[in-house]
Design a protein that fits this description.
The chain has helices at 2-29, 31-41, 51-58, 152-177, 185-205, 213-229, 242-259, 262-269, 279-326, 328-372, and strands spanning 63-67, 74-77, 79-84, 87-93, 98-99, 105-109, 112-117, 120-124, 142-143, 146-147. The protein has three domains: 2-41; 79-149, no CATH class; 153-372, no CATH class. Strand 6 and strand 7 (112-117) form a beta hairpin. Helix 1 (2-29) packs antiparallel against helix 10, helix 7 (242-259) runs antiparallel to helix 9 and helix 9 (279-326) runs antiparallel to helix 10. With 376 residues, it is of the alpha+beta class.
Length: 376
C-alpha cells in the first residue's frame, strides 16, 4: 500500500511537471509574435479585469444572468419585494429598474422612488429626486427597506428543492411498489441515505439518533444538491454565500444547545476536574466554544465552495486576460491548457460537493452527540 502511494505521488508530480513544461514551451514559442502584437495594440487595448465578473457571479443579485450582454443576453428578471415603514413595495420585476442620467438603476413604483447601488436597494426620502452619497459610497438621502425579494440564490434554492422533491418522490413511490433490489435513481439515493444513517448519524449520536435523522438527512441533501447545482454553467453560488451558511450553522447551534442535557451544561458551567482558581478562565472559554463550533461550520462551507468558483472563473479569465494584453495568438495558445485545468477543477469540485455535505453533517451529528450523551 505504501509503495502504491509513493508511485502514485511520483506519477502525479511527473504529470504536473509535464503540464507546466508544456505551458512554458507554448509561451516561449509564441513570445516573438505575442510581443509584436502587444507592442502594436498596447495603445488600443486595456488588460481584461476579471474581478467584477467573478464578484458578480459569487454574489447574490436580483437577476439571474446566464450569458451575453445587452439585448443579446440571457437573463431572468426576478421579483422584487420590499418592506419599508410598515408598507409593502412590490412585487415587481427587476427589469423595471433603468439607468438614469447619473448612471444608477432607478425605478418609481406606487410613488416610491428606488435606487439600486451595487445590488443594494435604497428608498429615496420623500421629495428626493436623485441619490446623494456619503464617504462610504452609501446613499445618504434614503432608507434601506427590508428586502424579501426572490433573488438569484433564493431561486436556485427553490430549483434545488424542486429537484429533491422530484427525486425522492419518484424514488419513494418506486420503493413502495417494488420490493426487489433497487434500480435507477433509487439505487443511487438509497446508499446515500443508508450511509448518512449508519455511518454518520448513528455512530455519533447513539441510541436517540432517530429523533435527529430527518433534520440531518435534510441538511446533507440540501447542501449536496445546492453544491452540485452550483457547478452548472450560469448557476448561483448558494452554499458559497455566507448568509446561507450562517443560517445553516445557526440552526445547528439551536438544535445542539436545545438538545443539551444536564451533563452537557454541567461541563460548560462546572468543568469537572478543574481547580476553583481556574474556573473564571475555563467557564468563559467553554461558553465561547459553544459559538466557535458552528462558526467553524459556517466558514468552512462558505470558504471551500467560494474558492472553487473563484478558481474556475480565474482560470477561464486567463484566456481573456491573455487576449486583451498579449493578443489573439496568446489567447489561443493558452486556451487548451486553461480548459484542461478547468475540467480538472470541475471534477475536483464534484468531489468537494459531496465532501462538504458529508463534513457539515458529520460535525453537526458529532456536536449533537456530545450534547446528548449520558456521562457515567
Amino acid at each position: 500500500m505504501a509503495e502504491f502511494q509513493i508511485q502514485t505521488s511520483k506519477i502525479m508530480s511527473f504529470s504536473l511537471k509535464n503540464i507546466f513544461v508544456f505551458v512554458a514551451l507554448i509561451l516561449v514559442a509564441f513570445s516573438p509574435v505575442i510581443a509584436s502584437e502587444n507592442s502594436q495594440d498596447s495603445t488600443k487595448k486595456e488588460t481584461y479585469n476579471p474581478v467584477p465578473a467573478i464578484m458578480h457571479h459569487i454574489s447574490d443579485s436580483h437577476e439571474w444572468h446566464f450569458w451575453g450582454e445587452g439585448d443579446n443576453s440571457a437573463t431572468i428578471h426576478l421579483p422584487v419585494i420590499l418592506w419599508s415603514n410598515g408598507e409593502l413595495i412590490g412585487p415587481f420585476l427587476s427589469s423595471k429598474f433603468h439607468h438614469n442620467n447619473d448612471g444608477h438603476h432607478v425605478v418609481e413604483f406606487n410613488g416610491h422612488k428606488l435606487v439600486r447601488v451595487h445590488g443594494k436597494i435604497y428608498r429615496l426620502n420623500d421629495g428626493q429626486k436623485n441619490a446623494t452619497f456619503d464617504d462610504q459610497h452609501h446613499v445618504s438621502n434614503a432608507t434601506v427597506p427590508i428586502d424579501f425579494s426572490i433573488t438569484k440564490n433564493v431561486a436556485s434554492m427553490l430549483f434545488a428543492l424542486v429537484l429533491l422533491l422530484l427525486f425522492f418522490g419518484i424514488s419513494g413511490s418506486k420503493a413502495k411498489k417494488n420490493k426487489s433490489a433497487p434500480s435507477g435513481l433509487l439505487s443511487f439515493l438509497e446508499p446515500l441515505v443508508l450511509f448518512v444513517r449508519d455511518d454518520i448519524v448513528k455512530p455519533n449520536i447513539g441510541k436517540n439518533y432517530q429523533k435527529y435523522l430527518p433534520y440531518l438527512l435534510t441538511l446533507f441533501f440540501f447542501i449536496l444538491m445546492n453544491n452540485l447545482v452550483g457547478l452548472l454553467p450560469g448557476s448561483a453560488n448558494v452554499t458559497g454565500n455566507i448568509a446561507i451558511t450562517l443560517v445553516l450553522s445557526f440552526i445547528t447551534l439551536l438544535v445542539t444547545n436545545i438538545s443539551g442535557n444536564k451533563s452537557y451544561w454541567g461541563h460548560i458551567f462546572n468543568p469537572p476536574g478543574v481547580p476553583l482558581a481556574l474556573m473564571p478562565i475555563m467557564i468563559p472559554i467553554e461558553i465561547v466554544g459553544i459559538f466557535t463550533k458552528p462558526f467553524a461550520l459556517m466558514i468552512r462551507l462558505f470558504a471551500n465552495i467560494s474558492a472553487g468558483h473563484i478558481i474556475i472563473l480565474s482560470l477561464i479569465s486567463l484566456i481573456f486576460m491573455a487576449q486583451s494584453g498579449l493578443g489573439d495568438v496568446a489567447a489561443w495558445s493558452l486556451s487548451p491548457v486553461a480548459v484542461l485545468f478547468v475540467l480538472f477543477m470541475d471534477l475536483i469540485e464534484v468531489l468537494v460537493a459531496f465532501l462538504q455535505a458529508y463534513i457539515f453533517t458529520l460535525l453537526t451529528s458529532l456536536f449533537i452527540g456530545l450534547a446528548t450523551v449520558d456521562h457515567h
